[in-house]
Specification:
Strand order of the largest sheet: 8-7-6-9-10-11-12
Helix content: 25-40%
Structural class: alpha/beta
Number of strands: 12
Radius of gyration: 21 Å
Shape: globular
Strand content: 15-25%
Bound molecules: nicotinamide-adenine-dinucleotide
Low-confidence stretches: none
Length: 316
């Protein structure tokens, strides 16, 4: 049996299981995230199947191991939330879905940027109140702008292709970049990218060296009035520093699909507590800030791919 947390992709897992792996397993679906509080519900299962907002720290892993769990199936690419040393020590098999529809996330990053650029979020709210006034909604044309992509892996490259189609000039920073980006633009150091770009899009993983890559110091060097979009991991941005940069109008707009403290907010949605996050509330006071709850990957096509790879990992 497999314990499946936060199961909004149930239909896809069921379909793939029935079509390709009917004998492989039974799946127990749970609507909430895995956490220290919910981990006892995994008792009796052989594997847990989790997303990016489930807790897989040392304590949770030890508890899972004590309940006889042998495999952790991640239905996501990133595994910065898994305490890998503990998993290894306990002999837990950990598998991720390394690549699924990079276009889904790249398209979402572009959609967020275009929403900020054209203020469609504000227009939507106005028209719902019967107000067709466009005052204050003056936008920016994306064509001809300089876009900086930090991290040109699968998603960063997919974003580069789209921005290239929009007629943008492209710069990228990636210490391990392959050759592919060069057909769209120029690889530069981080400072050049920050100074020259109207739009900065983050697509690198969260590691010890990229944590708070966007901080007070780097924000001071960013081109004044530029837009920052993060669809990668919340920890790449020092959120307090970003609030200050928005206040000073150093940043012209911010779009986040990922938020530094999103794990805690996900935990709250099971416990039913009212979310009390000062920093988030402060961010939401800005008209030029757009925040989503980690939905970049959330397309039918991506969920289908995720289900296939996840159950494939289990059958291995
Ligand atoms: P990838 O491994 O294909 O690409 C990451 C790139 O970042 C690589 O080219 C790597 O060289 C580069 N990089 C590493 N360190 C860097 C640094 N210090 N500065 C600049 N670049 C650096 O990964 P991917 O599939 O493109 O995914 C990128 C990130 O997107 C993932 O790490 C994950 O956190 C995030 N993601 C978000 C969602 C979502 O729903 N919002 C979905 C999937 C992935």
């Amino acid at each position: 049996a497999v314990f499946s947390a936060k199961s909004y992709d149930r239909t896809y897992l069921d379909q793939v299981r029935e079509q390709h792996f009917p004998e492989l397993c039974t799946i127990e679906y749970h609507a909430f995230a895995l956490s220290e509080e919910t981990v006892p519900l995994a008792q009796g299962c052989d594997a847990v199947c989790v997303f990016v907002n489930d807790t897989l720290d040392e304590r949770v892993l030890r508890a899972l191991h004590a309940y006889g769990i042998r495999a952790i199936l991640l239905r996501c690419a990133g595994f910065n939330h898994v305490h890998l040393e503990t998993a290894e020590e306990l002999g837990l098999f950990v598998a991720n879905v390394p690549a699924y529809s990079p276009e889904a996330v790249a398209e979402f990053a572009v959609a967020l940027i275009q929403t900020l650029n054209r203020k469609t979020h504000r227009a939507y709210n106005r028209v719902r109140e019967g107000n067709f006034n466009i005052e204050g909604l003056l936008g920016n044309t994306l064509h001809g702008k300089t876009v900086g992509i930090i991290g040109v892996g699968r998603i960063g490259l997919a974003a580069a292709r789209i921005f290239h189609g929009f007629g943008c000039r492209l710069l990228a920073h990636d210490p391990f970049a392959g050759e592919e980006f060069r057909q769209f633009g120029t690889l530069v150091d981080l400072d050049t990218l920050l100074q020259e770009c109207h739009i900065v899009s983050l697509h690198c993983p969260l590691t010890d060296s990229t944590k708070h890559l966007i901080n007070e110091e780097t924000l001071a060097r960013i081109r004044p009035g530029s837009l920052l979009v993060n669809t990668s991991r919340g920890g790449l941005i020092d959120t307090t520093a970003v609030i200050q940069a928005l206040k000073m109008k150093q940043l012209g707009g911010l779009a986040l699909d990922v938020y530094e403290a999103e794990g805690e907010l996900f935990y709250n949605d099971h416990s039913g507590e009212i979310i009390d996050d000062d920093v988030l509330m402060r961010l939401m006071t800005f008209h030029n800030v757009l925040i989503c709850g980690h939905q970049g990957f959330f397309t039918r096509e991506a969920l289908e791919e995720i289900a296939e790879v996840t159950l494939g990992n289990l059958s291995d």
